[in-house]
Design goal:
This protein has 474 residues and is an alpha/beta fold. It has 3 domains: 8-149 and 276-337, 3-Layer(bba) Sandwich (FAD/NAD(P)-binding domain), CATH 3.50.50.60; 154-273, FAD/NAD(P)-binding domain (3-Layer(bba) Sandwich); 351-462, Enolase-like, domain 1 (2-Layer Sandwich). It is built from 13 helices and 22 strands. It has helices at 16-27, 43-48, 50-68, 83-107, 166-171, 186-198, 217-230, 323-337, 366-371, 387-391, 420-432, 437-442, 452-462; strands at residues 8-12, 31-36, 111-121, 124-129, 134-138, 141-144, 148-150, 163-164, 178-182, 201-205, 233-235, 239-246, 249-255, 263-266, 268-271, 275-277, 310-312, 351-353, 358-363, 377-382, 398-403, 410-417. Strands 5-4-3-2-1-6-17 form a 7-stranded mixed β-sheet. A 5-stranded parallel β-sheet has the order 8-15-9-10-11. A hairpin with a 6-residue loop joins strand 21 and strand 22. Helix 1 runs parallel beside helix 8, helix 3 (50-68) packs across helix 4 (83-107) and helix 3 (50-68) crosses helix 6 (186-198). It binds nicotinamide-adenine-dinucleotide (NAD). Nicotinamide-adenine-dinucleotide binds at residues 153, 182-188, 190, 205-208, 213, 239-240, 272-275, 320-322, 352-354. The site of nicotinamide-adenine-dinucleotide has 26 residues, from helix 6, strand 12 and strand 18.
Length: 474
C-alpha cells in the first residue's frame, strides 16, 4: 500500500484532525502513536462540542416541531423534560462514538496513549500519562493537532458556577429561568436555542450590528426572525461591561448606543465570544516551530511548520476552526509525510450553523465579494416556491448561488432553511468540480426534495426557473 512503512509518527491531540491523521497514517503502513488526555479519541468535537450539541439541538427541534404541529391539527401535550435522562442520552451518544473511535484505533494498531505531550526536542516527546507515569519517545515526524479553547474576555472573568463556557452549557446541570448569552456566533445561537427550547428565557448580546458576523445578511435574516420569537431578547451593538455574582444570580451591565435596559440579573451566563488556539505546548521553544501573533502555529500548504519534523493541523493553525477542515488537513499532512505531492488548497470549506433554520455557506460570500470589489451576480431561489419546503411547513428558507458573470462559474453557495447543513455539501462538490451554473441547472434532482432549490437557483440565473415567474421585459 505504501512506500513509507517504517516511519514512526506521533499525533498530539485526538480530535477530528488528530484521529483522522492517525488513522490514515496507519492505513498507509506507518507506525502511529496518538496522544490525548481523554480515555478515547474524539477531542472537543465529540466530548464537548459538535456531537453533544447536535444531540441536544435534535431534541430542541423536536420540541419546537411538536409546538408547530398544532397548526397541522396535531396537539401534543406540554413536554415533560426529564433532565437526568436527557443528559444520559446525550452522554451515551458521546460514549458510543468515542468508544467506536477507540475500537478503530485498536483495529488499526494505533498506539493510543492517554496523557499530555511536551517537546524534549524536534523529534522527541515527553508524555505525562494519565496513570501518573512519564514516558519519553522519539518519532520521525510529529503532527500537532491540539485544537482550541474558549476565549475569555477580562470583563467577563468571574469565578461562579453560574458562569459557563460551551462545555459547561453542554453539561446541562439545570434549565435556568434566565440565561444571558454573550456572543451571537455559532455557539451562542446553537446553545441558546437548546436552552430556549427547554424553557429558559434567553437574552443574546452581540457587540456587532448583526448575528453571525461571518455570514451574508440575507441568510441570517430568516434565522433572526425565528430567534426573535424563540429568545426573550437579541441585543445588537451591545457589550457586557461587567458581571458580578449576587445571591440570586449574575448581575450584568450592558454598554452600547442602542442599549435601553442597562442592567439585569440572570440565573446563568454563557460566554461564547470565540476560541483561542492551543499553541502553548510545553517545550515548543526547543523546536523551530513558529507561532504567529494570534497564537496560530505557522504552516505551509503541506501543513509543515518551520521545523521539518513537525506538522500542525486544525484549529491550532488558523481559521476557520471547523472539525471538517481539521480532518482534511490531517489527511493532507499525512500524505505529505508519505511523500505524496499534495497541498491543502480547497476551493470551498463549508460552514454550517445548526440552528433552526440552519445557515450554511461555502466559497465566496456576498459580503466578501463586496469587500474585495469583485464583480459577481447572485441568483436566489425562495423556499416558498419549493414543494418540499411547503410540505414541511418551512417556507422560511432561501438558496442562492454566487456566479461569475463572465464564465458563469459558481463562486459561492449560501443556504438558509431546515436542513441547509446537509444541502450545502452539493454546493461544495459543485465548487470543487469547477461547476458552471448550467451544470447545476442540468443536473436532475429528485422531486420533491429541498435539493431542487440548488438546481432552481441556477435556473433563476438563466431566468428559466420552473417555479419562479419572471415577467417578460417589454
Ligand atoms: P464565533 O466567532 O462564532 O462568535 C463569537 C461572537 O461573539 C461574534 O459574533 C462576536 O462578534 C461576538 N463577540 C465577541 N466579543 C464579544 C463581546 N465582548 N460582547 C459581545 N459579543 C462579542 O465564536 P463562538 O460562537 O464562540 O464559536 C467559536 C468557534 O467554534 C466558531 O468560530 C467555530 O469555528 C466553532 N464552532 C463551530 C460550530 C459549527 O460548525 N456548527 C459550532 C460551534 C462552534
Amino acid at each position: 500500500m505504501t512506500d513509507t512503512p517504517n516511519l514512526h509518527i506521533a499525533v498530539v491531540g485526538g480530535g477530528p484532525g488528530g484521529y483522522a491523521a492517525a488513522f490514515l497514517a496507519a492505513d498507509l503502513g506507518m507506525k502511529v502513536t496518538l496522544i490525548d488526555p481523554e480515555t478515547n479519541p474524539g477531542g472537543v468535537c465529540l466530548y464537548r462540542g459538535c456531537i453533544p450539541s447536535k444531540a441536544l439541538l435534535h431534541v430542541a427541534k423536536l420540541i419546537e416541531e411538536s409546538e408547530q404541529a398544532k397548526d397541522w391539527g396535531i396537539d401534543f401535550a406540554e413536554p415533560k423534560i426529564d433532565l437526568a435522562r436527557l443528559r444520559s442520552w446525550k452522554e451515551n451518544v458521546v460514549k458510543k462514538l468515542t468508544g467506536g473511535l477507540g475500537q478503530l484505533s485498536k483495529q488499526r494498531s494505533v498506539q493510543y496513549i492517554q496523557g499530555r505531550a511536551g517537546f524534549e526536542n524536534s523529534n522527541t516527546l515527553r508524555i505525562s500519562k494519565a496513570d501518573g507515569a512519564d514516558q519519553t519517545v522519539s518519532f520521525d515526524r510529529i503532527i500537532l493537532a491540539t485544537g482550541s479553547r474558549p476565549a475569555i474576555v477580562p470583563s467577563l472573568k468571574l469565578d461562579s458556577p453560574r458562569m459557563m463556557d460551551s462545555a459547561g452549557a453542554l453539561n446541562l446541570e439545570d434549565v435556568p429561568g434566565s440565561l444571558l448569552v454573550v456572543g451571537g456566533g455559532y455557539i451562542g445561537l446553537e446553545l441558546g436555542s437548546v436552552y430556549a427550547a427547554l424553557g429558559t428565557r434567553v437574552t443574546v448580546v452581540e457587540m456587532l450590528p448583526g448575528l453571525l458576523p461571518g455570514a451574508d445578511r440575507d441568510l441570517v435574516l430568516p434565522l433572526h426572525k425565528r430567534l426573535d420569537k424563540l429568545f426573550e431578547a437579541i441585543l445588537l451593538n451591545t457589550t457586557v461591561a461587567s458581571v458580578k455574582g449576587e445571591s440570586n444570580g449574575i448581575h450584568a451591565t450592558f454598554e452600547g448606543a442602542d442599549v435601553k435596559e442597562r442592567e439585569r440579573v440572570f440565573d446563568r451566563v454563557l460566554v461564547s465570544v470565540g476560541r483561542k488556539p492551543n499553541s502553548e505546548i510545553p517545550g515548543l521553544e526547543k523546536t523551530q516551530v513558529q507561532v504567529g501573533t494570534k497564537g496560530f502555529i505557522q504552516v505551509n500548504p503541506q501543513l509543515q511548520t518551520s521545523d521539518p519534523s513537525i506538522y500542525a493541523i486544525g484549529d491550532v493553525v488558523g481559521e476557520p476552526m471547523l472539525a471538517h477542515k481539521a480532518s482534511h488537513q490531517g489527511r493532507t499532512a499525512v500524505e505529505a509525510i508519505a511523500g505524496h505531492k499534495v497541498a491543502f488548497e480547497p476551493n470551498a470549506i463549508p460552514a454550517v450553523v445548526f440552528t433552526d433554520p440552519e445557515v450554511a455557506w461555502c466559497g465566496l460570500t456576498e459580503t466578501q465579494a463586496q469587500k474585495e470589489n469583485r464583480e459577481i451576480k447572485v441568483a436566489k431561489f425562495p423556499w416558498a416556491a419549493s414543494g418540499r419546503a411547503v410540505t414541511l411547513d418551512r417556507p422560511d428558507g432561501m438558496t442562492k448561488l454566487l456566479i461569475d458573470p463572465k464564465s458563469e462559474r459558481v463562486l459561492g453557495v449560501g443556504i438558509v432553511g431546515a436542513g441547509a447543513g446537509e444541502l450545502i455539501a452539493e454546493g461544495v462538490l459543485a465548487m470543487e468540480m469547477g461547476a458552471l451554473a448550467r451544470d447545476v441547472a442540468l443536473t436532475i434532482h429528485p422531486h420533491p426534495t429541498l435539493s431542487e432549490t440548488l438546481m432552481e437557483s441556477a435556473e433563476v440565473w438563466f431566468g428559466t426557473s420552473t417555479h419562479v415567474y419572471r415577467p417578460k421585459r417589454s
